[in-house]
Amino acid sequence: MNTTTNTSGQTSGPKQGTSIDEALGQTELGSWISQNKAPVISALALIVLGIFGYGVWNHFNTEKENKYADALHTVVSEKITPFQEGKVTAEELTKEFTAAWQEMGSFAGAAPYVIQVVDALTAKGNYKEAYALISDADKRIENPQLNYFINVRAAVLAEDLGKKEQAIAHLKKIVGSGVKYFEGKVYLDLGRLYLETGDKEKAKASFQYVIDEGSEVQFKKMARLYLDELK
Fold first, then answer.
1. pLDDT tens digit string along 10-34?
2. Three-class SS string for the chain?
3. pLDDT in tens, 130-146
4. CA dihedral angle for residue 192, residue 194, residue 196, residue 200, rounded to 10 degrees
5. Each residue of 151-199: pLDDT tens digit?
6. Which region among 40-49, 81-90, 155-164 has the lowest average model confidence (pLDDT)?
7. Among candidates 168, 174, 79, which has minimal Cα distance to 129?
8. How far is CA 202 from the centre of its chain?
9. pLDDT of residue 23
10. Are 124 and 84 in contact (CB under 8 A)?
């Protein structure tokens, strides 16, 4: 680097007339930047644009999701109580909720509202309508934790409708997701459904899993009772 020494013996920096390229050329990294200015500037520009673009996208996406949530909240808050009081039919509730939800794609924020409507329908014995909604949620929402609560309800409703194979499929989705909430209960129900559909080997394996891996004492006890019956 070009330096000068003044009369007091102090060293100063680059001469005032030194160009940026000359200054960069004094170090290995600086020399590389000087020789590759165009791609470096382009890369920096892309990074800045990417950050800015993400910020814009996130802002509008948040606004969109807030509108979705508001629309679903309006339906639930205005229709659930009248439905429970018998002033709105299950078909009307389902139709209005589905119409509001239809254009929202895989919006995960819909899950709590879907579950609220499904639970209200289930409480009044409208299993068919409830299962149609919860099955749709299972297809559209991709979140392991939310899908646990969705598939637990779907399995119960499928069984209530006599669709035991579908109930098994919903429970297997929970097992495959890696979410382990009440794992013993999930495997116990799987074993029971396998037994009811005639697959004793899978039933035994499910009950044995509860005994070997489960942590809930009451489910272990029930699994042992089922296994004793199978001997």
1. 444 444 445 555 554 555 555 555 5
2. CCCCECCCCCECCCCCCCCHHHHHCCCHHHHHHHHCHHHHHHHHHHHHHHHHHHHHHHHHHHHHHHHHHHHHHHHHHHHHHHHHCCCCCHHHHHHHHHHHHHHHCCCHHHHHHHHHHHHHHHHCCCHHHHHHHHHHHHHHCCCHHHHHHHHHHHHHHHHHCCCHHHHHHHHHHHHHHCCCCCHHHHHHHHHHHHHHCCCHHHHHHHHHHHHHHCCCHHHHHHHHHHHHHHC
3. 999 999 999 999 899 99
4. -100
5. 999 999 999 999 999 999 999 999 999 888 899 999 999 999 999 999 9
6. 40-49
7. 79
8. 29
9. 52
10. yes
pLDDT tens figures, 106-127: 899 999 999 999 999 999 999 9
Letter for the amino acid at 139?
K
Can you state the angle between helices 183-196 and 164-177, rounded to 10 degrees?
150
Tokens of 121: 């329908």
In our burial notation (b when 16+ CB lie closer than 10 A, e otherwise), range 139-169 reads ebbeeeebbbbbbbbbbbbbbeeebbebbbe
Q: Would you give the end-to-end CA distance of the chain in angstroms?
A: 89
pLDDT of residue 5: 46
